[in-house]
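> Could you send the D,D-dipeptide transport system permease protein DdpC prediction when you get a chance?

Sure thing. Input:
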Amino acid sequence: MTLATDILRRPEAVPRPRRPGMRRPADLVRGLPGGVLVAGALIALYLVMAAAPALLQTHPPFRTDLAATLRPPSLDHLFGTDQSGRDLFSRVVEGTRDSLAIGVGATSLSLTLALLLGVTAGLAGGALDRAIGRFLEVMFAFPNLFLALLLITVFEATPVTLIAAVGIGTAPGYARMVRGQFLAVKGAGYVEAARALGHSRLRILRRHILPNAMRPLVAMITLGVGQSIVWASSLAFLGLGVAPPSPEWGALLDAGRNYVTRAWWLEVMPGLAIIVFALSVTVVGRHVQDRLDGRAGTP
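Output:
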């Protein structure tokens, strides 16, 4: 019996061809650092909390029980209870959707404004670039928190106002970064070579400038979400966040600050939820940036 006949009789023994460069999902995961895997798993857990909170909640998040007020963490109440006897763990899970929505919305608004200003300044140059540069310098003269406080003071504190306040407050930093990236790419050697070859401005913009200038924004998106949630929580802690009974993380911090000496868990547990999420997206964002810059090992 020949080898070819044996293979024909046993087709399952013939390995499936794989296209060059293809990797199995298991291979991609196996090459990731342990810290990135843990951070990715935590982000996935937060997404489950936001999409289907009932899967993880141990008690109804809005049910009050005056006989169980300010109970410390236990097996029955993992994060303890608040001043109304509500289960804090369930409320933290319930507030994940609002907190992530504020973070994603503020980051989207901030990046949109940054792209509008940064790309216009970087591509136009001349007087328009100088005008946008002066405007960004004026915006940088005001602290981000001051701009956010100004907007929330003028308008009512709602999730939409928080998104606008945090997004506008963080946009100048992103805009200056985008502008600098576009100016650097415009002067790169490969762009000059494309001009020398007679490529049109539209082709150069589409094939060379945009893909290379937009690369850092991938990591900025992940980092910006965590930063926006921290900013929104800071505003809520100052009493300028979403009004109760919303269990948004910043609102939980604001509600628990009057009981910090009697019930430490009212501040620690929501604070840990914010810190863990911010650290997780930062780790993933840094790893993505390193991979794009070629500084991380290739799996």
